[in-house]
Design a protein that fits this description.
Layout (H helix, E strand, L loop, with lengths): L1 E2 L19 E7 L5 H8 L5 E3 L4 H6 L3 H11 L10 H11 L3 H6 L5 E7 L6 H5 L4 E8 L2 H10 L4 H19 L5 E4 H6 L1 H12 L9 E5 L15 E5 L12 H8 L2 H17 L8
Parallel strand pairs: 2-4, 2-5, 3-4, 5-6
Antiparallel strand pairs: 1-6, 7-8
Helix pairs in contact: 7-8, 7-11, 8-12
Length: about 280
């Protein structure tokens, strides 16, 4: 896990009272790449609230066409400069923080946001709502990542394009000041050590009781396209994570690929994987 520190961050506008907390921890991630685990780890800090929805769901809701249109525009311009857009984003983001979250942590100074896949391009508009932002990027090797997307119903050609596009955004984010780079592979290898390194990298205040948030849900081969329920949040000790996270999930996913699929995916995503520090068997 590494953090880039190239230059001093530019201060953003201070949010209005009663809206957003002044700081944000923004988790940039793949869907189906361990993001819920890390998102809840960050929100285990007594200083950090958690949004009730993934960022794009909270801001755009069911307006998929609007989201795609704005996302396309964000590739070519700083969306924080689009009149009214940054304030719209801040208002909708504030609405994703449930009253019970504020009631549990009335002195919280930050919120943890999960920004998935292509929505990383909205970083400037998100940042405009906060005085301070810290970004974390959670990567995953292309073979198990693409296998997960294939199991969701995507074609092999489509999943490699998705991986390459998102990896390109991640590589750009990795160059920004203060970005903490994390690997899913380190999470499943030693979850407790991963959590300690994450907390240190982001400067998170530890929970008073030492227990962290963990969302119980189907993971790996047990998860299907229709699996949206059963997401109870429990609080457990970091050492208990090992009992709940399958260390073999990546190897099992890669093993479900045929030799032809594996060869095609690696050839199509090799450059992207290398840009994120992966070789062919580094999973």
């Amino acid at each position: 896990m590494t953090a880039n520190r190239n230059s001093a961050p530019e201060k953003k506008l201070v949010p209005s009272p009663g809206g957003l907390p002044p700081r944000a921890f923004i988790l940039n991630c793949f869907g189906r790449g361990g993001s819920n685990i890390v998102w809840n780890m960050i929100a285990s800090s007594p200083d950090v609230l958690i949004s009730s929805k993934e960022w794009h769901q909270g801001v755009f809701g069911s307006h998929a066409r609007l989201r795609k249109t704005m996302r396309a525009a964000a590739r070519h311009m700083d969306m924080s400069r689009l009149p009214g857009f940054a304030s719209f984003v801040a208002r909708r983001t504030a609405e994703t923080i449930a009253p019970e979250a504020w009631a549990e942590k009335p002195e919280a100074t930050a919120v943890a946001l999960k920004v998935m896949d292509y929505h990383i391009v909205f970083a400037p508009a998100i940042e405009a709502g906060f005085s301070e932002c810290r970004h974390a990027v959670l990567t995953r090797h292309p073979l198990p990542m693409c296998e997960s997307l294939i199991r969701s119903g995507e074609s092999e050609t489509r999943v490699t394009k998705i991986y390459n596009d998102i990896a390109a955004h991640m590589a750009v984010m990795a160059k920004r000041e203060g970005t903490a780079m994390m690997r899913f592979e380190d999470l499943i290898a030693d979850p407790a050590a991963f959590y300690r390194q994450l907390a240190m990298a982001l400067g998170l205040t530890p929970p008073p009781d030492g227990r962290i948030r963990f969302m119980q849900k189907k993971f790996g081969a047990a998860r299907t396209t229709l699996d949206h329920g059963g997401r109870e949040v429990v609080r457990i000790g970091p050492d208990e994570l090992r009992e709940r996270i399958d260390a073999n999930v990546n190897r099992d996913a890669a093993a479900r690929l045929t030799p032809q699929q594996r060869d095609f995916i690696w050839r199509a995503t090799r450059e992207s994987a290398l840009s994120l520090g992966y070789d062919e068997t580094d999973f």
